Amino acid sequence: MFEIQNYVGFIGAIIVFQLIPGAGTIAILNATARNGISAGLGAVFGTLLGDFVFMVAALAGLAAVMQQNPFLFECLQYFGALYLCWLGLGLIRAKITPEKAHQEPKKSAWVYLKQAFLVSITNPKVMLFFVAFFPLFLKADASHVTLIAMMVHVSMMSLIYQTLLVLLGNALALRLKAFPFARTLATKLAGFALIAFGVKLAVNNR
Q1: Could you tell me the pTM of the whole model?
Q2: Residue 18: CB partners within 8 Å, gap ≥ 6?
Q3: What span, in angstroms and rounded, lies between the C-alpha atoms of 144 and 141?
Q4: Which of 57, 148, 179, 189 has the highest CB neighbour number within 10 Å of its CB?
Q5: How far apart are CA 147 and CA 91, in angstroms?
Q6: DSSP the chain
Q7: pLDDT tens-digit map of 33-68
Q8: How confident is the model at residue 104, as a pLDDT?
Q9: What's the mean per-residue pLDDT of the chain?
């Protein structure tokens, strides 16, 4: 279908990829827990935008250029690691009182879109994943239509899964708001998770 080799395997691989939690998933759940569905959807579109940029770059051969310039590649990785740690520290240091737990300061969905986009775009391994992923399902004589179809598949399936994640995350957040301690614990854990992703990214860059 769409000249994609092993179409069923292609769809299955996308599903598995979506189920693997990453920094983007945490950014989406954090935004949802803080400001509800609109904030969560903002983070979703930020993540999708970052993934789309990497898909285009991967198919355009930017990954090969970056691999030929190790310094540029390492700088991007370290910047991404520092940004994740910075977000994580912000969550850990946040003081959540019972009043704040029930009335989180409102922020525009645009704020969370930008945050999620930066989390996604500063993780070059996402692009390398697409570099390794797409060729597995491409024919040697694949047309541009096939490449576009693959990008649309990834984007649409990501949108569906991440939107469901926002809805479920919002339902959970509403329950946690009744328990300040649980809300604080969830926020701290999210912060530590972001830092862990940042440290892992930096260590793997050595």
Answers
A1: 0.73
A2: 157, 158, 161, 162
A3: 10
A4: 57
A5: 39
A6: -TT-TTHHHHHHHHHHHHHS--HHHHHHHHHHHHHHHHHHHHHHHHHHHHHHHHHHHHHHTHHHHHHT-HHHHHHHHHHHHHHHHHHHHHHHH----HHHHHSPPP--HHHHHHHHHHHHHT-HHHHHHHHHHGGGG--TT--HHHHHHHHHHHHHHHHHHHHHHHHHHHHHHHHHTT-HHHHHHHHHHHHHHHHHHHHHHHHHT-
A7: 888 899 999 999 999 999 998 888 877 775 566 567
A8: 59
A9: 78
Residue 154 corresponds to which amino acid? V
- The Cα 120–Cα 162 span in angstroms is 14
pLDDT single digits (tens) 121-171: 887 667 767 776 777 777 766 777 888 888 899 999 999 999 998 998 888
